[in-house]
């Protein structure tokens, strides 16, 4: 995989019964689990209305904290993305003298000062606020924090576990639920010996010396007293009842935080009241003004759309003319990039005054899968820039957007780069605008500026969600090739959705006349 990309570990393909561990250099406690994707965490105004649900799990060394965290994940069943974040990742960087002590088992890793608490709280705060975070990677074999970091984004539930998880007030302030795992001291010692010998290559003598010198005093002084801050005490073994109670509470909290608004934005003049609160008749499509950039409607463009709309067009022709149209659209969208004056010397020695691109970083992000149909045209126009992707699909029962997969360029992943990056967001059409809402919100969460987002699309539904989208994100530039006037409501067969007890299916919205399923026509 190129260095410009990373597949967000928040979207590894694993089932609820499987926990995917991180590489061997990292603590195996850091895990990411996905079940069915992340639902909207924002309202129709585009603003965040729900944080991730954060659980702090503390307890003595080898008390079973990680086991409890994983049991919570398994018991929850069908859930959005979950991150188990280990305190062990946040051990401080050690100098040469400290490294010698560490390899001789003479460095106290069980004191609160051994943990970079401000960094732990900062990373956890970002994840809770639905932003991306780049957490440090710590090697137990080398007793050192490594140069690399681990990119995390997209969790609905975060479980932060560690012996000091309830000690620091800044961390406690971030938790929605505080759990302490209480376990017999002899059992904890036996588990620690077994784990350190097997996973960390330690000898029994060194383990016992470290336990008596540092671990036991730290537990008595710092860890055990922190149990007073816990909302619930969980036994270190035979804890099925306690875990069931925790899972019931989490489900209730997630239900209260759920947000469903796709129906409101799909046909806004029917579902969103006016500012005065008075009902208004349905406006005529031609009376709706859209703040978007429309590709000049030349005869060539009209001819291309006639070919693409025709159901009898062969796949070969469809792909060819789709690539032509995407090239024209991206070329037209370049006007929204900044340019600076530039003077060059011509072959005959004369000055020629022109322009040069004045953007620090440029990248593309395709909303899969129909957005991929614009990627070839994008690469033809803007060469040698990374192109990432987002997989956003509709929930099979509610129809709400779900974020299933993220593969973003380095320019977006790193917040200090994202603020100076222009992103071309590629999707085939804006109908209900549910996917567009989520994609823009993801970019904003990463630190991309709103006026640095250029949304390029083939079709926009005038009476669809684009007006709500522009109201929520007025500085986002939308460049499209054509505007269809009509969005029609219907039922998708095969599903029993809300408000549909007869089993007609869930409600869908279709753009008319449209171009059909663009992704299917392009790729199949």
From TrEMBL:
<dbReference type="InterPro" id="IPR029057">
    <property type="entry name" value="PRTase-like"/>
</dbReference>
<dbReference type="InterPro" id="IPR006083">
    <property type="entry name" value="PRK/URK"/>
</dbReference>
<keyword id="KW-0418">Kinase</keyword>
<dbReference type="InterPro" id="IPR000764">
    <property type="entry name" value="Uridine_kinase-like"/>
</dbReference>
<keyword id="KW-0547">Nucleotide-binding</keyword>
<protein>
    <recommendedName>
        <fullName>uridine/cytidine kinase</fullName>
        <ecNumber>2.7.1.48</ecNumber>
    </recommendedName>
</protein>
<dbReference type="Pfam" id="PF14681">
    <property type="entry name" value="UPRTase"/>
</dbReference>
<dbReference type="GO" id="GO:0005524">
    <property type="term" value="F:ATP binding"/>
</dbReference>
<keyword id="KW-0808">Transferase</keyword>
<dbReference type="InterPro" id="IPR000836">
    <property type="entry name" value="PRTase_dom"/>
</dbReference>
<feature type="domain" description="Phosphoribulokinase/uridine kinase">
    <location>
        <begin position="54"/>
        <end position="236"/>
    </location>
</feature>
<dbReference type="Pfam" id="PF00485">
    <property type="entry name" value="PRK"/>
</dbReference>
<dbReference type="GO" id="GO:0004849">
    <property type="term" value="F:uridine kinase activity"/>
</dbReference>
<comment type="pathway">
    <text>Pyrimidine metabolism; UMP biosynthesis via salvage pathway; UMP from uridine: step 1/1.</text>
</comment>
<feature type="domain" description="Phosphoribosyltransferase">
    <location>
        <begin position="296"/>
        <end position="489"/>
    </location>
</feature>
<dbReference type="InterPro" id="IPR027417">
    <property type="entry name" value="P-loop_NTPase"/>
</dbReference>
<dbReference type="GO" id="GO:0044206">
    <property type="term" value="P:UMP salvage"/>
</dbReference>
């Amino acid at each position: 995989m190129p260095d410009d990309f990373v597949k967000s570990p928040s979207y590894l393909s694993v089932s609820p019964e499987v926990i995917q561990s991180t590489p061997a250099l990292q603590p195996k406690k850091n895990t990411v689990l996905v079940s069915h994707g992340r639902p909207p965490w924002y309202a129709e105004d585009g603003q965040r209305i729900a944080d991730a649900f954060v659980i702090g799990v503390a307890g003595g060394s080898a008390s079973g904290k990680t086991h409890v965290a994983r049991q919570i994940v398994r018991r929850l069943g069908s859930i959005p993305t979950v991150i188990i974040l280990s305190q062990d990742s946040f051990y401080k960087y050690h100098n040469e003298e400290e490294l010698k002590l560490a390899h001789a088992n003479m460095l106290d890793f069980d004191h609160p000062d051994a943990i970079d608490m401000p960094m732990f709280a900062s990373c956890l705060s970002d994840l809770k606020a639905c932003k991306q975070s780049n957490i440090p990677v710590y090697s137990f074999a080398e007793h050192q924090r490594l140069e690399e970091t681990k990119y995390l984004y997209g969790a609905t539930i975060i479980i932060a576990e560690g012996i000091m998880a309830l000690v620091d007030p800044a961390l406690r302030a971030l938790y929605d639920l505080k759990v302490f795992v209480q376990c017999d001291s002899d059992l904890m010692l036996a588990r620690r010996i077994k784990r350190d010998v097997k996973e960390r290559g330690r000898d029994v003598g060194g383990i016992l010396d470290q336990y008596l010198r540092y671990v036991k005093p730290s537990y008595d002084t710092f860890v055990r007293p922190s149990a007073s801050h816990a909302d619930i005490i969980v036994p270190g073994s035979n804890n099925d009842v306690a875990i069931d109670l925790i899972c019931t509470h989490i489900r209730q909290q997630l239900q209260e935080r759920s947000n469903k608004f796709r129906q409101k934005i799909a046909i806004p003049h029917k579902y969103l009241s006016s500012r005065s609160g008075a009902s208004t008749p349905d406006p005529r499509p031609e009376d709706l003004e859209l703040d978007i950039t429309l590709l000049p409607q030349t005869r060539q463009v009209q001819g291309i759309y006639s070919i693409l709309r025709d159901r009898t067009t062969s796949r070969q022709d469809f792909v060819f003319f789709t690539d032509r149209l995407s090239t024209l659209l991206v070329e037209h969208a370049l006007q929204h990039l900044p340019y600076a004056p530039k003077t060059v010397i011509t072959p005959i020695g004369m000055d020629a005054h022109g322009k040069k691109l004045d953007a620090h970083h440029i990248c593309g992000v395709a909303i899969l899968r129909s957005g991929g149909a614009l990627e070839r045209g994008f690469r033809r126009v803007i060469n040698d820039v990374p192109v990432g992707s987002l997989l956003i699909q509709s929930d099979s029962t509610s129809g709400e957007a779900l974020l299933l997969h993220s593969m973003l360029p380095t320019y977006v992943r790193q917040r200090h780069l994202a603020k100076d990056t222009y992103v071309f967001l590629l999707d085939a059409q804006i109908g209900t605008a549910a996917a567009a809402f989520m994609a823009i919100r993801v970019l904003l969460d990463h630190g991309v500026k709103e006026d640095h987002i250029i949304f390029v699309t083939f079709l926009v539904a005038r009476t669809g969600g684009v007006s709500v989208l522009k109201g929520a994100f007025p500085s986002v530039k939308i460049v499209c090739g054509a505007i269809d006037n009509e969005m029609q409501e219907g039922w998708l067969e095969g599903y029993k959705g809300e408000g549909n007890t007869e089993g007609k299916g869930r409600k869908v919205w279709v753009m008319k006349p449209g171009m059909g399923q663009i992704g299917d026509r392009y790729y199949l």
